[in-house]
Amino acid sequence: MGRSNLVVAAIANLGTAICQIAGEKNPKHEWFNPVARLQARQEARELVDRRSARIVLELEAEGKIPQLALNELDLELIRLATD
Question: Which end of the chain, N or C, is less surrounded by CB atoms within 10 Å?
Fold first, then answer.
């Protein structure tokens, strides 16, 4: 691991620790690690069609998706696909 990766990892660890102290139950390293965020976004775009993801998010915002279906959807993945 290069020096820059060590710095990014340390910042991500610090950020997640601060979020936990502030009460966030499941902070993600991707929130503080731009490289991991880019990789996650690329993987999401490979798995989820961007147009379909936008439609799902619109329906979700309008409350038109039943809770049972929402429980089965990975909305974080869908949101990453639209970034």
Answer: N
* pTM (two decimals): 0.63
How many helical (H) and strand (E) elements, i.e. helices and strands, does the chain have?
A: 5, 0
CA distance linking residue 71 with residue 82, whole number of Å: 20
Burial of 32 (0-12, 13-18, 19+ CB in 10 A): buried
Is there a contact between 80 and 54 (Cβ–Cβ < 8 Å)?
A: no
Q: What is the pLDDT along the chain (83 residues), one digit of tens a residue?
A: 466 666 667 777 777 788 778 787 777 766 677 777 888 889 999 999 999 999 999 999 999 999 999 999 999 899 999 98
